[in-house]
Amino acid sequence: MAKSQQTFNKLEKEKKRLKKREEKQKKKLARKAEAKEKGGGIQFAYVDHFGNLTDTPPDPNDKIEVDVEDIVLGIPKKEETDEDKFDPIHKGKVSFFDTSKGFGFIIDSKTQEKYFCHVSGLIDTIAENDQVSFELEKGARGMNAVRVKKE
Question: Locations of Basic and acidic residues compositional bias (predicted)?
Fold first, then answer.
């Protein structure tokens, strides 16, 4: 006599699977029957002119006509103001400069901020207490004075 190819464990798993499928079908039919009894159907949510959700439809008399040309997509271009137009050339005084090491610091005359200055950013040779004009450029550790000229 030959042994059955299906083991007891496989039969149990198959029975559980079929039972689950039947339960799911019963639940589905029960939900359908419940929906018919309520007579509800699909509930709607309306949005009023303030953007709030309501259950009442909007009044067609309150409808506002909007011209297509008035709708702006994206961000409007920024208009230049006097604050945006600034002079890139700053004036200041050399507070410290070491010629052997090739760097120093310049204090801005308007903001009193200190800016690092390297010998590679010099146009003229400078020394301490010289009045200079310079431009600012973003460096590794902050703003650096570049294109430094003696006045």
Answer: 10-38
Q: Which one has a higher pLDDT value, 63 or 128? A: 128
What class has domain 89-150? mainly beta
Q: 131-139 and 142-150 as β-strands: parallel, antiparallel, unpaired?
A: antiparallel
Q: Can you give the pTM of this predicted structure?
A: 0.45
pLDDT at 66 over 90: no
Is the per-residue pLDDT at 84 higher than 60?
no
Residue 80 near residue 89 (C-beta atoms within 8 A): no
CB 104 within 8 A of CB 98: yes
Contacting residues for 68 by C-beta, under 8 A, at least 6 apart? none
Per-residue DSSP letter, 55: S
